[in-house]
Amino acid sequence: MKSFLDEVAQEIISSKYPFEQIKIIVPSRRATLFLKNALAAQIDQPQFAPEIISIESFVEELSGLKKVEHIYSLYEFYEVYQKYTPDKEQDDFDEFLGWASTVLGDFNEMDAHLVDTKVFFEYQTSLYEIQEWAQEESSTPLINNHLNFWKRLPLLYERLNDQLYNQQKGMLGMLFREAVANLEHYTQGNKKQHFFVGFNALNKSESQIIQEFISQDAGRVIWDIDRCFFEDGIHSAGKFIRKYYEEWSLLRSEKKPVFKDNFCQVKNINLIGVTKNIAQAKYAAQLAERIQAKGSDEKTAVVLGNESLLIPALSSLSVAQKKWNVTMGYPLEETTAATFFDTFLKLHSNISKGSFYFKNLQSFFNTAWCDALFESKKINIQETISELQKKNLSYVSPSFFLDKEDSVSLSAICFKPFTTVANMLERLVQVSEQFIVFLESQKGEEALLHLAYFQRFRQKFNQLILINQKHPFVKSISLLVLIFKELTKSEKIDFVGEPLMGIQFMGLLETRLLDFDNIIITNLNEGILPAGKKSVSFLPFDLKKKFEIPTFVENDAIYTYHFYRLLQRAKNVYLLYNTESDGLNAGEKSRFLHQLIFERQSAHKLVEQQLTLNYQPPAIPISTVVKTDEIMNKLNAIAARGFSPSSLSLYLRDPLAFYYQRVLGISEAQKMENSINNMDKGTLVHEVLEKLYKPYIGKALMTEDFDSMFDRLPSLMEERYKSIYHGNNERTGRNYIIFEVLQKSVIDLLNAEKKIVKEGHQLKVLHLEKKFKKEISIPGISQSVKLIGVVDRIDELNGTLRIIDYKTGLVNPNQLKISEWELLSTNRDYAYLFQILLYSYVHSEFMSSYKAVEAGIISFRNLPSYFIKFSTKFIKSDPHVSQGICAANLSKFEEILFEIILEIFNQKINFIHKN
Amino acid sequence: MKSLKFNKFINSVNQGSFQIINAAAGSGKTFSLVYLYLKKLLSAETDYTFRSMLALTFTNKAVNEMKVRILNFLFFLSSDPNNEKIITIHQMLIKDLDLSEKILQDKSKRVLKIILHEYAAFEVITLDSFTHKIIRTFARDLKIPLSFEVVIESDQILEQLTESILEKAGVDKDLTKILVAFSLSKTEELRSWDIGKDLYDFSKLLLNENDRLPLRGLKEKSLEDFLEQKKRFEVALKTKQKDLILIGNEALEIIKSNGIEKEDFLGKGIIYNHFKKHSDGFYEGIYSNKLSADLLVEKVLYAKGLDDYKKEIIDRIQPQLTEKYFEAKSKVGKVLILKDLIKYWVPVSLINELEKGLEDFQNSEQQMLLGRFNEIIARTIANQPVPYIYERLGEKYRYYFIDEFQDTSRLQWQNLIPLIANSLESLDDQQKLGSLLLVGDPKQAIYRWRGGDNQQFLNLLDHQSPFQIPSETKNLDTNYRSCDSVVTFNNNFFSFVGGEVLDAQQKSMYSEQTQQKLNNKDGGYVEIIFIENTRKKEDTIPIYQQQTIRCLKQAQKNGFLWEEMAVLVRKKNQASMIAEIVQEHGIPFVSSESLSLSQSKKVTFLIALLRLSIAPDDLEQRKEVLEFLWSKKESPMDYHDLLQQYLFGDKNKFFNLINSDFESSFNLDVFSRNSLYDAIEYAIETFEISETIDAHLNAFLDNIFEFALKNESDFVSYLSYWEQKANAVNISTPEGINAVKILTIHKAKGLEFPVVVIPFAEEELSVSLNDKMWYPIDEEYGNDFEWGRINFSSKLKLLGQQGQVFYEDKMRQDHMDSLNTLYVALTRAISQLYLICPLEKDNIEVTKSYSALINHFVKNQGYNPTLENPFYWGEITQAREKKEVKTSPLLPEFKISTHWQKHLWFQIYSGENEENDQARSRGLLIHDLLGEIVNEEDIVPLVLNAVEKGLFRIDEIEYYNDLLYMVTSHEVLKPYYKKGAIIFNEQNILVPNASFVRPDRIVKSSEGWVIIDYKTGKYRPKHEDQLRHYEEVLNRFETKVFKKYLVYIDDEIEVKNI
Ligand code: SF4
Prior knowledge:
The complex is a heterodimer. Chain A is of the alpha/beta class. Chain A is built from 35 helices and 26 strands. In chain A, the strands form seven sheets. Chain A has an eight-stranded mixed beta sheet, sandwiched between helices. Chain A starts with a helix and ends with a strand. By secondary structure, chain B is α/β, with parallel strands linked by helices. At the A-B interface, helix 2, strand 2, helix 5, helix 7 and helix 13 of A face helix 3, helix 5, helix 6, helix 7 and helix 8 of B. Strand 2 of chain A pairs antiparallel with strand 19 (989-990) of chain B, so a sheet runs across the interface. Residues 26-31, 480-481 of chain B line the site of iron/sulfur cluster (SF4).
């Protein structure tokens, strides 16, 4: 089948105009390359190509104005807005940004469609004014505000246009209006023949321009449309061109146009439902490659409805596949550089009391290439991070990274607190430059793309600096973040391959004028293809219709045209859509698919399919480790070093965890948390208590002793806290609360004990943080086994010896009462008891001189219970066995202890994961 | 047939414009809705009626289903009206609309076509997208950024929100006080100091409509107000406590002064003890005995063998004591309530901070929580004049259709009422009234917890219309889904339930509205299995598991496929218990848990790599990596040896060892230099797990992809997201695999299955005990506040009339929720239904639990439930034959390779040749600039323009100016930049059949062509070749080439004459 461009080339050449007298205007410059090729294929003598120009450039040329960037027009608009809006009603710049783009969009539309804005605005406001709801009685503040907004729009519109015009600049709509105004002047001096190729939806200006050229005999228009769409009175693919043939007298006078019958030819059309996005991208690329591999010289295109899917699609091409091209825009905000600047700005905008959040720093350092860049400056990020982690700094002062003098180094650029927004912008450029220089020096090819991203950002920041100098509206970093978002939102990295061979990856808009034999389109869902009622505008629907400004109906018809045009000359078509229906408006098949089904052409072979993914129920993790000789050796070594109570109770809880943590030595990784962790909390309280009680060891406590402890407490708390945070005692957030809570619990404990003393009891602390090491020999194990550990406190209350463990967690009295000994090794709840009993067991000799001994826990989360002591609650209790610590109970404990250790050393029993 | 009975209804409601369809389960609800939609669509003179029709439903799935059905019906009506799929509808429409076949066919054809091409106006949408639309229209009026993104899942935002409040501790003075006090009050109750969770839970109320009313009253209050109120509570509590002691003392005094002693009273002095406790200030649980009841019926209080005179005295003081008793009782209730109020007051007092924080957060992130939409509309938009709203919306809906009405929330309905009223009560341009159709089933209302307000529907059914037009109701009373025995079982069961519930509304709901007519689907089978009711709940789990397996296997024996079976449970953990046993028995299954991403080992492996890139020495993550690789490759090495040898040491050693042993080519540095998404693909490629890419891995990629689109996509951010959300990210339920589905009843709503098994049929009917809820604050504590939070419990019953009513009302709602859930569950089955429930004692209260209802029902049927003998209803029949229409599945094999980067890079710089891999950006820039220079005068404006474009900075202007001047004023080149020269910059020269060439600059001089080409790299011989090629092409013109120059541009200029 002849492609459209071949047809165009033929028509142009047969028009007999010499190429230098020809100007070809196309919807976008993307297709120029193809058009040149098509022309080259039909000439027999080298010659200069005719001028081929996009309509946008053509209009720029006609108007003599320069098109401004979106961000620039926003700033200009705000200036106008400020000037002409009463102070009281003015929005701040950030609020303004929330709606300004939409207003500018509307201005653009009005201009491009040559709307008489005076009439337009007057019509609307007077319409509002006669409405019942706008009358005094029924009007509401919301209505009034909206009305005022409307009443001000004409002035804003006018002044903004003036302001831009004075700079010889304009937004696209203005350019169009101006171009039309200059049209006569242009055509008078014009000697060229203008070919308008492949247009469909024209705005009023375009339509006037084209008509003018035709009527001057200085131009002609070449449509690309199939007969069946043109003649079908309703089909929206033909909506516009049908309209031109009805409305343009120049066309009406022509004889009935002949359009080709391509669409109704034989085609294979496959509709394929896919779960979500990635699978669509990958399957699309896979299909394309499969078709390409057939070796034919057919043309194949993958059209990505969602442009962000480019990379998932490219990465599923095989390594050997070299013939592919990308012709589309990739969103700048999806790039690694965007991520870098996001984290950079966040780092600075989140600064709290002059310090960075560790978490933000970590994010920052872990963006792509950041570590490499720092490494190139001899700064090792990994080390920095672990140093911060070791010091437990969840807030980091910038000075950590800075030399006083230095203001140009990478660290200075990145971490110096910024002074002004201008300074910040300057720094953004500097960071970009650092990256650019560094990435340019990289040998590996993976740096190239990233380099391009940073170059683009530098360019954007440079622009921003200029704008900011002119209009210093941005005063805070959070506003800068908004601007940054605005800046990157619509910006795209343009890929313009030399797309002559192989698989073409494109967006739908880039397919204009082109034809492919095989087409694969992704994201055929409502809301994407086509976009549907998505575009925002302040112009009321009816008004748009009245003034012939496009509504969603027209916008959708544009998509429809592109979609069907692409199908016209294709042979094999694969249409992929998402079947997942989560999200607000997701998972609805595109209307195009319904249209293809319900308006099916008889020669179309339609197949509906569903892509299935391989589903496997999740695998089960490794739950058993066999005790090899190697492991036995390790166990022996541990025995020689000593088992701690906590390691034994870990074994009871989960033998596999015991293996990983104690045998292998994988301790849980130190995580940097926003707040002080449990271990540190424990340490803090333990240390404070040790220091508090230390002076009184061995002596009976008096109430005055407690008073002096109360006095010392606050400074001790501060001091210990500081030592955990390496000298930093700024407390905010959770840490502030925890600190108060911990201090309160220490006070509660002191009060409880003071009360005891006051009531006349005798309390004497004997040991604090007492280390022990005890060797035991267990029948059945050749070597001796050591037990090691620390007892928090041993004291004497009215002559009773108390072995005490402090716990910062919650302990219930029930957890220290046991009814059956087996539970000690099988029930997790008794882990604390196990430790207490072990402490008692190793101290049995020490205890022998005391008539009464108690062992238990002081839980800082259960101070009302104060000292919770171990006791038994056997149903049939042996009269020889006491309910607390006694020889008989300890020997029972010994039995259990031996059993456990024997089990650990039993090579036949594996380490099995316990839930 | 569906059609005949239905037909009558259609005609009966023809005139009314406010119709309600009350549709029991399986009664053809969607069919009726679609039919009525079509009828409206095809009845009007214009073909464009659909533009003013709005159909609202709850889920995207329902939307899709309904749209496709409408389109399909239209398609058949227009192309094949006598097709059996459509014939009934066709006939009904002809009759109802009084149209000829031909006219109907043509009309359908036109309407279908127009809808297909003006599809955006075909508004069958979800209620959520409707509210979204309104919010978007009014965004500027509400000061919301127009480009806001809608966030559906609120967890993350709320978590960040509570964190940000917590962060203020130690910064904001007042707040600090409150937060610390809150924390301390929690520790006093032996609860964790950490108030994050409490605040988070509380912040959820901001999004729940059920809490809207109480919250509204709190809006204007300051922190101080809250503190004041707390003090008032505390004072009240103290007074009440004192009063109670006083009452106790007084009562004791009455007793004593009358010469009565403890033992003189009945039951070892039960009433004496009661007052004694009061006087000791103790009153937890003292109303659990029968004393209250006894006092109410004035039972004697004295002990049996007492002297008569004492009996007389006691009788005489009995009224006094009774009075004291009840006086104390209500006070105790108040004390308990006050304690609650105080306990939960702190989070309540932070509500405004939370709300403000939420607004700030949403605005700064340009995100809006969907859950707030209805509230915003109600507050700001719903009270605008309706024509104005329509005007702004740009749409004027005349015909409303609302599905699943029982689940609409109060606000959703209230926000709609004005819009609907306007169309029902005013004429449009064609002088027609609008219409409204509501469809729903009050018995399937199971979403009260998230705001659904069934009462609205019940009121409408009770003819309480908010519109001027009365409603007309039709009950759809035939069950088209289930087989006869399943239907009759449900009829009987719910009629029994209706007989037992007390509330009149519920009585009629269950005993009358559940009664469905049969659709002559023979067969059907219901089995109730009783299991032992053990003391400990855990002990019953294995029995439930066993019995579930037995049921599934039995159904399989009866010829049902696994995929035809579903196990329905109430709670997620029950689902995992069932999944566990089903997996053990090798039965294929799909459950929400098995769908979770975090269950996939591949996924956790990749996550471990991400973690390692941040903390390379994290041994736990290294272990994850090794464990995965070891299991995957079945390495001959012993697991422990592997760990021991690999785990320790520096990161390079670790990965080198891995690469050599597991034949991978992973490099941690490269990994971490990629974007998040690329990094994961890189890992998949280098570890070669791509050929087995599966649903989980694919969903993981999707998750990362989506995350990166919406957030800062650095590794750290993703990992912290993952830590929060890992368990909640699921793959979508795979279709077309033969597996049993395990799901919650809520998820099963709207679905049907040939076989349904319901284990754990033991749920209590009232589930709110110990839930926190709002309670109206008594006026005695001041008029500033209306609501506080309490724990729902029977203590409310101590409060007399008011508390009793509150308590019972809540219980009534609970019952309705539970019974509705049961109704939904029991009506899912088509052929076989299995219930597994504990055997209950005879004396259990009928409305206590599901199992109580079932046990009593079975007895009521004249059977004696036992463990050995399940109860049967109907007969087991074999599954009907299935037609095997399996098309071969489309299974993609995914390759992943990351070699696209460089290739892609060249497509940014179209002009560059692939060989030139020197990415000198400055060179490229100069090249571009030179391309635009015709002659020297162009330089200054060109450079300025470049600055404006941001290509370089102002302070570089001079550099570029100079550099360009160096070219244009170069001795050799100078003449070719003169004014007046004929210059072709970057002109394409078409070459027949060989595309085109584009020399940088050609000058036509009197002697002939001069070719100039700019180069930015080093000299290469091929540069000359290129020029010669240009020459060759140009020589085929009339003019011949005269000179050729290569211009090398670095900081210096070098010109080479070729
Ligand atoms: S199965 Fe359910 S949804 Fe479908 S028609 Fe019947 S009632 Fe409606």
